[in-house]
Amino acid sequence: MSALRQRAGRLALQVRTARPTAARSTRSYASGHGHHEPPHTVEESLGPAFYFTLATFAGSILVYSISRPGDSGESTIHRWLRKTSDYGTEWETKNHLMTAALEQAAHDKHLLYGAERSTHYELSYPEVFTHGSPHNVPAGHFANIDKVVAHYKKQYHEDEARKAKKLAAASQTSQ
């Protein structure tokens, strides 16, 4: 009986290795000791085709709405085209005015640069002569400006006398 038992054992072993059971054929790639992580979720975007379709739909609604005639009987597209056709003449007018203004400014600039300049400066106080560095005055010397001071004092007294006469005449006419 032992030969029979050995033979049955070998036959059972051959059958078991030739046809593996379902529990043995499945493999688990999970690592760890007793805890399992949930599978990774893949978040896919909607893709460019979805956004293209959505934009096409919105664009067609927009084109339809602006192509419909409004209260005045013409569509928004026609009003826009009419406005853009007038756009060129408006810019032409602006450019012409700008060119005329620039030419006038250039003419005025040449007039100012070419005009005779006055060399007479009215000075309000005598110290203005000695503010800067002295010209043609040797070091250690001072320029004598007594004649200049006398001239401006005389001019000041004449102005004051003229103003006093004018005020006296105005006060007599008001009485």
TrEMBL record:
Residues 16-31 have a biased composition (Low complexity). GO terms for cellular component: mitochondrion. It comes from the Eukaryota. InterPro entries: Nuo17.8 (IPR034444). Residues 1-40 are annotated as: Disordered. This is NADH-ubiquinone oxidoreductase 17.8 kDa subunit. It comes from Parathielavia hyrcaniae. The lineage of its organism: Eukaryota, Fungi, Dikarya, Ascomycota, Pezizomycotina.
